[in-house]
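protien #1 (seq + structre)
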Amino acid sequence: MKRILLVGTFIASLNCVNAQIVSLLNENFNAGFPPTWIRINNDGLTPQAIVSFVNNAWVAYEDIDSTGIGDSVAVATSYYSPAGTADDWMISPAITLEGHGNFIQWDVKSQDPSYPDGYDVMVSYYPAIDSFYVDTVFSVDAEYPDWTVRTVSLDSFANQTIYVAFRAKSTNKFLLLVDNIWVYADTTVSVPEYAMAETTLQAFPNPANEFVTVSAQRPVVKAIMYDMAGKKMTTLQPGGLTFRIPLQGVNPGVYILYVYCADGTQGRVKIIRS
């Protein structure tokens, strides 16, 4: 299948976040690639012409599904000339974790479903790439082609100052998109629930004009969709793992869907009404 250049994103919104959640790092790349983050192009390969805008290990690139509103994502490529394996890093600034309830959450997608990219999320006490190979907290060889929210506990590093690295690692695929990297401490969840707090959401098709199907790992008891001004648009009580959001009568634009699962976990995903 032809590789199609179509970049999307998820807009960060902290409306509805419980007051007992402490935000430790929040990056949405809307102001460009942050100077406090480290980028390392460890493969030294040359991107193909169609993805030549990826002129660093990772770049901030505007979401063409919602242009003109300053909405950007972090993009890495593994589509090289000649073909090769990506080894591209973006490393966060130092993050000091709380005593418990620490999580990292991010939004991610592979741009072309026929060429899905993979990546690792790694933690270290130092911002040098050789130090990250010890602690990999998440790894996937072929990420989903729809925007997906990933959440992973960082409690094994509680009370420590750490760095988090995203490493693109695929061979001859296309584009990997990451957005809204959020490290936070949630003191509202009891200690036994921390192991259950990892959640994954998918929304497809996205963009959509009639309805979007949302898929969760755990039964969803409530879903609320807001517009970007914080106005509540839709409230549902699905009760299952998969449900539809009707979009007839909804104006074109970007919306945020908050999902609440039966076990107390939560997630959020961007919905684009085309």
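ok now protien #2
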Amino acid sequence: MILAQFPDLQWLKTQIAQSFAARRGYNNIPLPSTGFPSVIINTTTKHAFRPNITGPISLFLNLQGTSRCKVDNHEVEIGNEFYFISNRFQPYTLSIDNDKPVETFNIHIGEQFSEGVLSTLTTPADKLLNNGAQSQVPTVAFYNRLYRKDKRFNQLVRALQQSQQQGSLSPMLFEETMESLLVYLLQQHRDVLRQAESLPAIKYSTRLELYRRLSIAVDHIHSCPGDSPDLDALSSSACLSKFHFLRLFRQAYGQSPYQYIQGLRMDKAKNLLKDPSLQVQDIALSLGFENSNSFSRLFRQRTGIYPSEYRLAIN
């Protein structure tokens, strides 16, 4: 189900409190089961405020513009290059306040659907055969953080977009794509856990907590693309001492915060260089460089070629 507008807030909260017992979605659309359904909110707006909604596993992303999402006192700005995850039973607040229109593509994965898929993905086949539909659903708590959109994620989003653009969404195609999305998210989650396990702590729970704190600092970097936060600000956001934070960051991400930020600037530069109408000087200034010479030197250090050579290679 894809909606072109946000559902009425009071109606939505009432349905959530009743676990969609009437099996009716917005505009009286029939639902296959109780519980929060699978739904995508693809709407364009300048202003929206959706406070304290207890949803299912939800992905917040934009096709154009930026929004903000808050979960457990952790608030992030979601730009075009990232998506943010909240978990089932975890209240979130979504807000949009922009001069230009923002096109959302927020994906809410239905409770019954996610339980069924995650059960098959995390339960050995012999147990599934023995227990059938009675098998216990495992708990998967995704990290509340910004995730970069990669090629596979964009492919899944495009598949949903294309189905919508064709005039009608096939229920089978919708469910297959949503199942593929959950498979993708679980693999990403496992990669994150492996990254967390690299941190130096005796207790596993301590490593997860340290990684959670580092993720808050990384989200701070991603949410402030035009700023250059210093070590004090980043370590403070992670509630860690400056040098403890620096050491843990290097172990988790394989580079220093400065190197990480410079890498983000280069990724942004590559995208801007695809537009032949933009001058290298203007790109350099927009990325916070004092002049095009310092930008070009760093770009060559990171890529092996100058910006002008990179532009010729891709155009």
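The longest helix spans residues 171-197.
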